Automatic annotation (TrEMBL):
The chain crosses the membrane at residues 116-135, 141-162, 174-200, 220-238, 245-270, 276-297. It comes from Actinoplanes nipponensis. The keyword Iron-sulfur does not apply. This is Membrane protein. Pfam families: DUF389 (PF04087). Keywords: Membrane, Transmembrane, Transmembrane helix. The keyword Protease does not apply. Coiled coil: none annotated.
Length: 305
């Protein structure tokens, strides 16, 4: 269930009221004439089941409410109401499967910003993964996966492609195109510094590393893992599940590969750098392909419903 708080220009209040009171997905409609001061208008509250939220919001935007007033969405965790229960039963489908596209676009747009925090997290994640590669310690790889922030831009890229939002696609590509290179450059420099201090050396990279060798040796399973990670990531985003935890799954296929590229370049081991770079490209392509496919299927299913 979602709660809508709408500021409506007075000349459109009647149309909005008719829209909300005539829909099976809407309940708990409250209209407060003249309550809004900035922007000036009438204040309208209502609750909408997730399955019908996108259609309602789309109609409100067609009425120009977004342009001349405002539309705010809030998630409702608990609702004790017979009217809400009836609305849930009337609308076909399950709320957990419903996609509220405006909510998804807003979330991915915010996570796709190329900010100082994003770059810092990317640098920290890549450096930690680089050390984990040299020490052949999966625990450090896992730590890097937790810190990695690239799930946001990857999700934003998928949403932008499916929804044809060019600005969102550009923003996501910028974050990825800057974030990964910056993280890798800093990791190269960090590797040189640690080597000068005698903490790591080239022999550690060339030694047999049974726990992390998969990072620079791509195969068919690399595509499979990346594809499954993309499916899980998109489902977590659209169904409002634990996106942070699924972001860790996304990172297992990206940040370690980028870190291995950086460490291999730092020591001039070009064959390993090339293998890691190929692994990174394969995984990103698989994630985006899976994400676009998943969102397209959900969009088609929503229209059918």
């Amino acid at each position: 269930m979602l709660h809508l708080r709408i500021i409506v220009p007075p000349d459109r209040t009647a149309a909005v009221r008719e829209l909300l009171t005539g829909r099976e997905a809407v309940t708990h409609v409250v209209v407060l004439p003249g309550a809004a001061v900035e922007p000036v208008g009438d204040l309208v509250f209502c609750d909408v089941v997730r399955e019908g939220a996108s259609a309602i919001i789309e109609r409100l935007r067609e009425l120009g409410v977004e342009r001349d007033g405002s539309i705010m969405l809030e998630k409702v965790d608990t609702t004790l109401s017979a009217a809400a229960d009836r609305a849930e039963r009337r609308v076909p489908g399950l709320g957990v499967d419903a996609v509220v596209w405006e909510e998804v676009e807003h979330a991915t747009a915010a996570e796709s910003e190329l900010s100082g925090a994003f770059l810092t997290f990317m640098i920290v994640a890549t450096v930690i993964a680089g050390i984990g590669v040299l020490l052949d310690l999966p625990i450090l790889i896992v730590g890097a996966m937790v810190v990695g922030p690239e799930f946001g831009p990857l999700a934003g890229l998928c949403v932008g492609l499916v929804r044809r939002r060019r600005a969102l696609v550009r923003r996501a590509l910028l974050a990825l195109g800057v974030g990964f290179p910056v993280g890798m450059v800093v990791t190269v420099a960090t590797t040189w510094v640690l080597t000068a201090l005698g903490l790591v050396n080239k022999a550690m990279l060339l030694d047999h590393r049974p726990l992390t060798e998969f990072i620079w040796q791509p195969d068919a399973l690399s595509w499979v893992v990346g594809f499954l990670a993309g499916v899980a990531g998109m489902l977590s985003l659209t169904s409002a599940k634990a996106g942070t935890l699924v972001g860790v799954l996304i990172s297992v296929t990206t940040v370690p590969a980028a870190a291995n590229v950086a460490v291999a370049l730092a020591y001039g081991v070009m064959n390993e750098a090339a293998g890691s770079a190929l692994q990174l490209v394969i995984n990103i392509a698989a994630i985006v392909a899976a994400g676009v496919l998943t969102l397209s299927v959900q969009r088609f299913a929503g229209r059918r419903r």
